[in-house]
Amino acid sequence: MKLGMIDYGRGNLRSVINACRALGHEPFLVTKPEDFADLTHIVFPGQGAFGDCMESLARLNLIEPLRTWIEADRPYFGICVGYQLLFHASEESPGVAGLGVVDGKCIRFTSKEVKIPHMGWNDLNITHPERQVWQDFDPEPYFYFVHSFYPLAENPSEVAATCHYGSETFCAAIERGNLFATQFHPEKSQHTGLQLLNNFLSA
Predict the structure, then answer these.
(1) Phi/psi at 150 (nearest 5 deg)?
(2) Is residue 26 within 8 Å of residue 4, measured between CB atoms?
(3) Active site residue 80
(4) For the whole prediction, is pTM greater than 0.90?
């Protein structure tokens, strides 16, 4: 296996790199199109604003290689903004197009009774617990979140997990073939997060 990690120059990759190393994998940093050669898996850790991240991907000529990878159904794990960028657009950056490989858009929390951003531990409702990526989990596992926006996924069959925050229930993870992506941070979710990463990398 050769694990690639998207490095667009804006995110803090260190905690995700350390999580992969703890599982026995040394990620290769992807910064240009030719870096996709010979990779078997890609992890895209996201941090920062939707528009800034898309601008960085465009500057590095990584948009089309990423789309090609995902459309070929090759293993992809997106985290936080690496999840949100899969969709068509976000209220965070009006007028900026996302990768558009998953139908839907990202919106901001509207609940008035909770703090924004949503920050801290929260439990999931897993829609298909029988799938490989969720093996050896409790029915409602806890993961760590830090976000103000979340995707509205248009295809219910792609929703892998939901989460409640205030009066809103949002899509916390999606899965489609070898595509898997989460709003929460597995690298900050201790043993539970490492188990999820390991399940993905072992599939």
Answers:
(1) -150, 155
(2) no
(3) yes
(4) yes
What DSSP state is assigned to residue 183?
S
For the chain, how big is the Rg over CA atoms in Å? Answer: 16
Helix, strand, coil: what percent of the chain each, to 5? Answer: 30, 30, 40
Helix (H) or strand (E) holding 63: helix 63-71
Give the domains, in start order, of the chain with CATH numbers. Answer: 3-202 (3.40.50.880)
CB of 142 within 8 A of CB of 121?
A: yes
Let me know how many helices (H) and strands (E) the chain has, helices first.
5, 13
d(CA 66, CA 146) in angstroms, rounded, equals 24
- Catalytic pick among 25, 53, 171, 187: 187
Of 80, 106, 163, 171, which one is the catalytic site residue? Answer: 80
Token pair for 61: 């000529």
Residue with tokens 């000529």: 61
Nearest to 39 by CA among 22, 27, 53, 31: 27
Beta bridge partners of 121: 144
pLDDT in tens, 158-202: 999 999 999 999 999 999 999 999 999 999 999 999 999 999 999
Residue type, 102: V
Q: Is 154 a catalytic residue?
A: no
